[in-house]
Amino acid sequence: MSDSDSAIVSFDNVGLRYGTDSEVLRDISFTLYPGSFYFLTGASGAGKTSLLKLLYLAQRPSRGAIRMFGTDVITLPRGRLPEFRRRLGVVFQDFRLVPHLSAFDNVALPLRVSGVDEADVAKPVADMLDWVGLSHRHEARPATLSGGEQQRVAIARAVIGRPDLLVADEPTGNVDPEMALKLLRLFEALNRLGTTVVVATHDVHLLKKVPESLIMRLDKGRLADPTGVLRYPPRAGRGAEGGGA
Amino acid sequence: MSARPGLNRALRRGFAPFGGERAARLVPHARLAGPMPWVIAIMVALTVIAAAGGLALQNMADNARAELAGGATVQVLEALEQERERQAEAVEQVLSADPDVATYRRVPEAELEALLEPWLGVGATDSAVPVPALIDVRLRGVADLAAVERLQARLAEAAPGARVDAQSSWLGPVFGVIAALQWLAIALVALLALTSATAVWLAARSALGSNRNTIEIIHLLGGTDGQIARIFQRSIAQDALLGGIAGLAIGLAGMVVLARQFRQLGSGMVAGGGLAPVDWIVLGAIPLAGVVIATITARVTVLAALRKML
Question: Full-prediction pTM beyond 0.80?
């Protein structure tokens, strides 16, 4: 099996522009391997969210190639994208909870979309809400939850389906340090179960909390340097490799 | 902190279809408070009345045609009363021997007088105005042009003053009007169906717009176009069903009122415009047809909008 076949995701010379504007991402090349933990860093406007959008299949690149789970997702018919999206967990920066559903129903959404039998939904969702410390608020609508609580619901929703790839955009931005650490531990637990985790953050303290993690840094739409993308060298056969042109 | 046993259970997946009430709840819905059920109710009510009118006209025309199908009238147009009598008797003799004639009846003078009384006054048959002798004939077959000409030829020698008319020909213009009204009813039903579909299309587009965020979330969580379309279909089908039932009730009430008005006309022809059991089934199917049109329209609209997303 080749490297790209065993990779969860590989980007090859990817560029992204919105409309006729200049490229927000340029010459992005990297490979993500199963079971690794990555931080994506960079200043505001560096292109972190755009890169994550490509990762969670909300956007097609303007150029380049993206393979995900061994399949070229650029040429993939859009009718087949849902089966790939169901293998992803996404924590959006703005949470994107369904406003008229309770916390419980929001967390249950990926399971229901994936077709999990209703009898098998309640317990996992209750466990997950308990895990993020929101079991007492399971009936609450997002509008009645604080920013931190909404973020925890969003994280619970992202991980409930045990995704192969978890993509989180500033997942600890609205929670206190104690909860941030707790959520990070949840990501690590998920990572130990085999999920590849990509966390976009500008919180440098967070990077130190996961010593096994690998770091990708974006600067003005490019990966920071062609070879030194990773602050920590990848373990053999694992980790991210690559860089911008 | 390590993963608890519950976490592993929490991470299980399955593949049953996504749908039902929980899926429908993704689209917030103020059923009956919104305009859609009422729009559909009005459309269905108008469709029921138009369809019922068309069906009643069809039945009226069919009954009249069946009644008049074998009917013909022989008029003996002779100014001299004695000759008129002779020719009328001769006509009766020819008719009695004609194998194509099922029955015949000489219209009595009293009946003729009653028929003419509104125009000529009392004692018209006794006046100087010659009134033709009338013989009501029922043929075994249809009183078409060929049958009428054949009977006319048979009577020509015995009663040169006799003239044969098919009774249905008198109602030809009426049948023409009925046919035109039926086409009008069909056009109305088609127009109302089109209007209903347009209303649903607008409602679906509006619902898509106001629920765009929710749709994007479901989309990004791996929801398929079909799953998302089903949410809207279900919601609009429920609206259409509620509106359809209300519309059927309103339409039937309108029909009852109209039927009472027509019954008061006391016309034999109008009395033939009742509805057969199959017609009631057709009317009952209109709300269901409304649900089908609404559901298909919603599905096509939502799928077309979703195809614009990645």
Answer: no
